[in-house]
Amino acid sequence: MSLITVGTMAFDAIETPFGKVDKIVGGSATYVAYAASNFIKPVQQISIVGNDFPEVEMTELTSRGVEMDGVEVVADKKSFFWSGRYHLDMNTRDTLVTDLNVLADFNPIVPENYQGADFLMLGNLMPKLQLSVINQLTTRPKLIVMDTMNFWMDIALDDLKEVLKKVDVLLVNDSEARQLSGEFSLVKAARKIMSMGPKFLIIKKGEHGALLFNENHVFFAPALPLEEVFDPTGAGDTFAGGFIGHLAKTQDISFENMKTAIIVGSAMASFCVEKFGPERLKEITQKDISDRIQQFVRLVNFDIDLV
Amino acid sequence: MSLITVGTMAFDAIETPFGKVDKIVGGSATYVAYAASNFIKPVQQISIVGNDFPEVEMTELTSRGVEMDGVEVVADKKSFFWSGRYHLDMNTRDTLVTDLNVLADFNPIVPENYQGADFLMLGNLMPKLQLSVINQLTTRPKLIVMDTMNFWMDIALDDLKEVLKKVDVLLVNDSEARQLSGEFSLVKAARKIMSMGPKFLIIKKGEHGALLFNENHVFFAPALPLEEVFDPTGAGDTFAGGFIGHLAKTQDISFENMKTAIIVGSAMASFCVEKFGPERLKEITQKDISDRIQQFVRLVNFDIDLV
Fold it and tell me: How many contacts does A have with B, using Cβ atoms within 8 A?
């Protein structure tokens, strides 16, 4: 009963209407690990960092049950760096700087002791590398979840389509679903994307929630209406971490349980946006999580007997 | 046990990415009446039409329990006419033509036999006229619901604020909530708007669903993910009609019952957008409505015991 996560561990510089940070820990695998480790241990991390990635961050993750055997440390290079500025609506952002650094040479190797994992979370990363990890596994995991982004659709669509054939769940946002399918209607987009490989599709709509599609079924989970979204960076990765963390914990990959997993993911993401970077995720307790999930229940629960 | 509705009865010309109609029956009170009459009779209509409004439409509405005593027919003028073109996302539109015609002289009179109604639906209309209707009522209704739009915020904000002080529920869309409150966060916007008078606020987000606020409580209802939104004209009015129709039918104006009423309103709106104008609303049966509401239950229902 374990979970492999693949993705970046990095530094971000972030500007939002509420503030600015010049250098904060980030990366898709970092957020996934912080979120998923609340539900499942070990989280077996595969990533790459430079000589500048904080030891204290590694220790913090390790103390939460995140295994680092698959994290390559490159002594003479810097970690991946991303810098971006959010617009007022927080749903759109401009990328200001992308310094690949160590990521330019990343060749993920699955450690021997990771083999046999039941769950695989492919965080947002070059599709070729996601595929390489799948191909290295001697036993196919029970469930493979893949995150990706428009950038890979622009420059590596053929590779992306290869990975799609091998995964069970794809996570994209609404504009990416439209780009990938060429369909404006999300219902039509979902049908087309599921014909490319994944049996399940999650379309994230930011502050407007998320949709889960499977065959002819659809489930909708709202985002929590928040007073302030402080920093949306990592919210999608945190959602993914909560989602697969719940599935790995319960060992149940039915559509019904995926609904619950999406609520768990949404709850985790709602914490993420409350502070810069993964800061808020480091503070929260099991009770905070369970209270937040109850807020989601109250948010959508209604009594239909009256109708 | 009755419901008064006030608003326009009109003609629309509509252009969407899916087609075009040059002249179709529309108007806020028309849509409200078609929706609400599925749940409550009589619906006591207050509106104004010209010599061109179809007799067959009046007969159709009357056969559904809509009373026309409050609908003034002006013999020598034309009905209100609106023409608009929707963008591809269907959430935004350009107004091409607005011919006030009879609406320029509208002075709504509450007929004597409408007095004593428990529910009042103030459809989107000049705020002064909404206020005039409230002031004519000898007994305050149990619940006053008000719809409005950005246009009145631009040109009649003071009047609008006067009406706000006298209503229980306000319906606006997200951009209108932001405009009226000056707050970007919808949670903050809701708090500010509720301090202006209404105890309940519904923020409609089109394809992204709707939020209901009351004191510190919030409820979220999704919109049904549809293959195609054919024509969104009247969806907001239809939502309002389903909402107040359910409340009037059940005679229960608690927050809990308003949640259900919002699901009913969303279900009605999901029919409205399937064809041009109110065409689809004329076809549906009680079974269609009940099946559609069940779709909403399945869309948001999840089992949280597993967490």
Answer: 108
